[in-house]
Every structure is written in C-alpha cells, then in structure tokens.
Amino acid sequence: MASETATGDVHSSLTLEEAGVQLTTAVTRLSPPFPWAALPADTVLVGGVVRDALLGRLRDNPDVDLTVPRGAIHLCRQLAGRWGGTVVVLDPVRDMGRLVHGPWTVDVAAWNSSTMEADLWRRDFSLNAMAYHLKQRTFHDPCGGLQDLARRRLRCVAAANLAADPLRVLRAYRLAAELGCTIEGRTRQWLQQVAPKLGMVASERVLAELERLCRAAQAHHWLLETGTALGTWLPMARPWPGLGRLSHQLALAVGLEGESLTRQLALARLAGVLGAQSVVERLGCSRRRQRQWQRLHHWRQVWAEATAGLTEDQQLQLHLDLTTDLPALLLVLLAHNQLPLKQARLWLCRWQDPADPLCYPRCPLGGHRLQEALSVSPGPQLGALMAFLRCESAFGRLAVDDEASILDSARQWLQQTGLQQTASPRQAPRRSKPDSP
Hints:
disordered N terminus, elongated, two-stranded parallel sheet, 437 residues, 20 helices, seven-stranded mixed beta sheet, alpha+beta, single chain
C-alpha cells in the first residue's frame, strides 16, 4: 500500500560512511541527561533514533534505545546515581532497564547474542536493526535497513523475530503509518500468521500500540488490516466500515487543526478499530476511554436509526454526552457518508464557540437564584425546571440576558406542571430539521 506523503528523504546511494557522518552530526546535537562519554565503550545506539536521524526527523528529546554487551540495568542505576532520574526495571531476566529523566526516556538492553551484529539480526524490522557505535562513530547495517529506508519499505528481519514478541504485528502497521511506508509482501504474510498470538501480549501493551497507531498521519491506510489482525485473536473485534476515510485530509476539510485534529481523529479511529464493547473491556481501557467509546458508538447508532432527524431531547443529550468529543462523531458520520461535509463544518464552527447554547447547554440561571425568586425547594422539581430552562436556552426560545423573561417562563412551566407533577419538562418532544446532528 503506497503512502500519500513522505516524512523525510534518504538517498538510495548513501554509503555506510556517509550515514555514519550524518548520524554523528545528529547525535552531537542531542543533549541527553548524561554525556555520551559517560557510557561504556561498547554502547550502541539503535532503533528509532538512528532511523529518524537518517530521515531528518529527529526530535529534540527523542526516546533513546541503547544496547550494551551486558549490565544494562546496572548501567541505568549508575547513570541515575550520578546524573539523576528514575530507573525502571523492564525485564530482569533479559537485563533491560529504563532511565526516565525529565522529557527523556532512555531504554538500555543487554545484547541478546554474543556480538552487536548478531544482536541486530534478532531485532524486529530492518529499519530498526541499524546501529550507531557511539565511541567509534560508525554506522552498522547488517540487515539492509538503509536500502529499505530509501525505498520506504518495512521488512521484517525474520519470521521468528515476530513470534518472539507478537506485539510487533501491531508495531508494523504503526511504523508504516508513521513513516509513510509500504509493507513487504512476505512480511505481510508473516504478520497474518503471527497475529493470533497477540493474546500472549499484555493488554496494556496492545492498547498503547493501537493508540499510537491511531495518532499517526497515515493510519487510515492500515486500520482495516489492523482490525483484521485483532480479529484473528479476538473474533468479536469487528471494525467499522469507512475506516479508510478517516484521514488527516478529512479532518482538515471539516476544519480541525493542531492537537485537536490529532486527538479527535485518533478517538474516531480507535473506536472504529475496536468495534465492540467487549474488545474495549478486554484491552483494559480506562473507564474514561470506555465511556468515550460507548457514547460515540451509541450516537452513531442513534444517528443511523433517526431517519427523520434527532428530536430536541436527543440533540440536547448528544451535546451533553459529547461536549468534548463532538468532532470525533462528525468524523465517524462523514466516514459513513451519513452527514454532508457542509453540515459537519457548520457544527464544528458552533462547537468551537464555547458560548454556543446548544453545543454547551447550560441553565441560564443558577439553582439558588431560582429557589430565591420562585420559592422552589431543592429536589426533583427544581432539577426538572433547570432542565426545561436549559433546553429552552439551547434552542433559542429564551432571552438569556433577560432575567425577568427567564423567570416568567419558569413560572409558566411551574404552573403547567403543578397540575401534573409527573409530566416531563416539555409535554411533547419537538423535532428539529432532519439534517441537524
């Protein structure tokens, strides 16, 4: 699957020596929480830092992956003892540790083989199997990652390497989405074969990888394949159709931008990939994330069933439920061709206005003021009155800056409901125009 954009450029004729020079320049510009010279002589920089430096997309505070022949956890503790930071033991058996220091996360692992080159052959993908020897200032690429980087191709080093950590199945789709890569045909076959073993991976690792994937610019190219991979492990995982339309271009067309675009698009994608409540629960999503998903799923279904448009009650509840996440629903509806783009843009503009009475419904008078002015006691009747006023305000039937008018409407409602205390705040639901979300 071809990407729409490239994240950097690596000339296909770049030699190992030239790559080493480029990496030396990039590494010199970094300011980790300790000097590079404080590391042992055989320390090797691997993984994303090497790859991103060659692509020209290295951040100021990247996550750093280091390998040493042995004593990785001990090295983390030494660095923390002298330069500060917190040490996390990732795997005591395989000797893997992490140093967290401010914005920096430094993972250190002992070689999984007797030599650096043999250790690289045990890594997941060729793009991550390139190394930079910090002391010698040399670049090492035994698995052909530099050529794959130039071709924008993601290639697994070996099938056994995928099986060693099945999470690498999801990582493949995430890297392809982040880097704008294709996935080599044989690698795709291996991914399908190993996907059923995702059940061996801790659910929090699976969820974290999915969340990273859903934030990637080109994720929409890979969401269906990701959902298929999940489905081989969790048959109840049935991705929503239309996932391929959940692109940055669609979010930009609606009017989203910046972090709001990334967050809302990621939420819509994640809900679409997971597909079923049981999957959300199985992955151990937080209660907040579960509520977000439930509300999105609920309102997507309500919208699909409301052929004559949402009632006022439904509209009001929708905006109460999706005060922070309305754009994610708009994106989902657009991806399903259930909402015109023009209408979605109109509603996004309203959502972006914190004073909009429907997108941010509120009672125009506080409960204490209503009690004082109308001699209403605290309780269900006061709550129903405030709900009535909130609805009247949301749909423009109240002059919210005219307290006397608001109190008149409240008195009329109290008189009407005084005869029948069980009546709802509005005697009959009013319908809006069919195209209103």
